[in-house]
Design brief:
This protein is mainly α. The protein has 17 helices and 2 strands. The chain has a two-stranded antiparallel ribbon with strand order 1-2. The protein is globular.
């Protein structure tokens, strides 16, 4: 019987790559990403000049750098989204191996830039954070193993992916980078759940995570300090959380006005981890809600398209990428409003940072490649054996 495609017409043989890509891509999700990047540049114009002034750079030094990084990210996103799932898988696994080796080398060759966590390689003109690039490669590699485990006589992919996830989590926790470690474990847990993990095992994993958190609290001053600050009923107004909380309160519903915000002059990470505080102060709750809606559209539309996907690998990899993308945004905004402990995690496509925005571009490009419309056959055809 004729193959059917959900929401579009069947792919035509011999069709040029650009028209085929444009017809099959999720245009709503791609438009939301472009809007998020535009919002990031807008907020960068407000948040970064004070930092540039303190460091002796021209007023819009960081905005110009973000435009360069963002341009590279958009190119990476579009090129990746044009690839077939098989090519994405091959390149992602190679990238995962390279970034895992780079992650292991951080204790010997990395730097902390005075922030107490060795997460970066300094290149002189820029810095690279391997964990940002590791995440999309890890998701694809783990999805490949989990999908292979579902085949008759397949390898023990679930066990292999679990060992891989735990190894990465331990390495990240040693930096320490508990935020990225939690994000990696969450992404793996979502894929494992979708792959058919028993609920009892997931409950056991939750218990292990809780135990690991208690051990980290007792053995890491960095981790304990952040948890104590989060649990404290009073917020020190001179801390980053204090500045962010006050800025959000001052912004109200419509904000204090473009360029009128004060938090950017006192908050060291106003252009990165706490950029949502700048948005809330100058543009108010209206812009914050718009940002939340943009992230929600990307995640919901991706899940909706992946629910119709019959290839287990594509379904698992896409689910992991979409879940990590949405949860990273949720963690960043949750920290700013003090719903979560401080994590040092960027807001994808909005926060300043070369590694963050380029890695996000690659990850979303993979997600767009996995959610492109493709011929899959009607479910009735499959049940009847295509008779």
């Amino acid at each position: 019987m004729t193959e059917m495609v959900y929401g579009t017409v069947p792919v035509r043989d011999g069709e040029p790559i650009l028209p085929k890509w444009w017809r099959t891509i999720d245009k709503w999700s791609m438009s939301c990403i472009l809007l998020l990047f535009g919002v990031g540049l807008l907020l960068g114009l407000a948040a970064s000049p004070p930092l540039a002034e303190r460091n002796g750079f021209p007023h819009f030094h960081y905005v110009q750098r973000q435009m360069v990084f963002g341009g590279a990210a958009m190119v990476a996103m579009i090129l990746t989204s044009m690839m077939s799932p098989q090519l994405v898988r091959r390149l992602a696994i190679l990238g995962f191996i390279a970034t895992f080796i780079a992650l292991c080398g951080l204790p010997f060759f990395g730097t902390d830039f005075g922030k107490g966590a060795t997460r970066w390689y300094s290149l002189g003109f820029a810095a690279v954070q391997p964990s940002e690039f590791l995440k999309p490669g890890f998701v694809v590699a783990a999805a490949w193993m989990l999908a292979a485990a579902q085949e008759v006589g397949g390898p023990p992919g679930r066990l292999w992916s679990f060992i891989m996830a735990i190894s990465i989590v331990l390495i990240l926790a040693m930096q320490p980078d508990f935020g990225q470690a939690a994000l990696v474990l969450f992404g793996w847990g979502v894929m494992y759940f979708v792959a058919g993990a028993p609920m009892l095992l997931l409950v056991g994993m939750a218990g292990m995570v809780t135990l690991g958190g208690i051990m980290a609290y007792n053995n890491s001053e960095h981790f304990a300090r952040r948890i104590d600050g989060f649990l404290s009923p009073d917020v020190d107004p001179r801390t980053q959380l204090g500045y962010a909380t006050n800025a959000i309160r001052e912004g109200g519903f419509f904000g204090v006005g473009v360029g009128e915000g004060e938090v950017k002059w006192s908050l060291p990470d106003a252009h990165t981890d706490f950029i949502i505080a700048v948005a809330a102060e100058e543009y108010g709750l209206v812009l914050v809600l718009c940002i939340i809606v943009l992230y929600s559209i990307v995640v919901v539309r991706s899940f909706s398209r992946l629910m119709k996907e019959r290839d287990p690998f594509i379904r698992l990899a896409g689910t992991g990428l979409a879940a990590m993308f949405g949860v990273q945004a949720m963690i960043n905004m949750g920290v700013a409003v003090r719903l979560l402990p401080a994590k040092g995690m960027t807001l994808p496509f909005v926060s300043y940072g070369g590694s963050s925005v380029i890695a996000s571009g690659i990850a979303v490009g993979m997600l767009l490649a996995f959610t492109r419309s493709r011929p899959q056959g009607d479910i009735g055809d499959i049940l009847r054996g295509h008779r």
